[in-house]
Amino acid sequence: MIEDEKLLLDVLNSAPRDGGEPLEYLHGQRGVALARAYGGSGDDPELRHLRIARDRLQDLIRGSETATKSLQALMSEASMRAEVTPHGVEWKLSAPPDVRLAARVLQAWSQVNEHLPGRLRACANTECNLYLIDHTRPGTAKWCSMATCGNRMKARAHAARTRNPKSRN
Ligand SMILES: [Zn+2]
């Protein structure tokens, strides 16, 4: 498991869409709770940076490469700092307090791309705005969750086949 993989998914999945416009979880009490669960403060600037990181990462995952510009701006004051321990040098992410969590999200995204290339993807249900990191061996996971989108899409495909028995795929 990549460090902060859960943080990355929690942030990416903080604008779920159930049929209509996305909901906003990185806001108010819910946003504060999410940020604090990962050592953040949950104050407004921090949540704003998390929303930028989320929205632009979603753009990138969905194939819009222009999103790197805002992410570059977000990371402008982030750096890696060397910390010498008796066992070696550890590199720690360093960023202003209200950017730190967003920087960790970006760091985790980068690690996932490096170690699990192609495994971070959007749920195959186009009405869903959730994301998954595919840890299955064949790498064929398509749904944010089998219980919700997986079953829903299977039922829909079945209904389509029943209506039109000639198209079997
Ligand atoms: Zn889904």
Key phrases:
two-stranded antiparallel ribbon, binds zinc ion, globular, 6 helices, alpha+beta, 169 residues, 4 strands, Jann2411-like fold, two-stranded antiparallel sheet
Give your account of this protein's structure:
The structure is a single chain. This protein is α+β, with helices and mostly antiparallel strands. It has one domain: Jann2411-like domain (Jann2411-like fold). Helices cover 47% and strands 12% of the residues. It contains six helices and four strands; from the N terminus they run H-H-H-H-E-E-H-E-E-H. The strands form two sheets. A two-stranded antiparallel ribbon has the order 1-2. Strands 3-4 form a two-stranded antiparallel sheet. Strand 1 and strand 2 form a beta hairpin. Helix 3 packs parallel to helix 5. The chain is globular and about 65 Å long. The mean pLDDT is 93. It binds zinc ion. Zinc ion binds next to loops.
Q: At the fourth CATH level, what is the homologous superfamily?
A: Jann2411-like domain
Distance between the termini: 35 Å
Poorly predicted ranges: none
Instruction: Tell me the structural class.
Output: alpha+beta
Bound molecules: zinc ion
Output the CATH topology.
Answer: Jann2411-like fold
Task: Describe the global form.
Answer: globular
Tell me which CATH architecture applies here: Orthogonal Bundle
Number of domains: 1
Helicity level, as a percent range? 40-55%
- Mean pLDDT equals 93
Helix count? Answer: 6
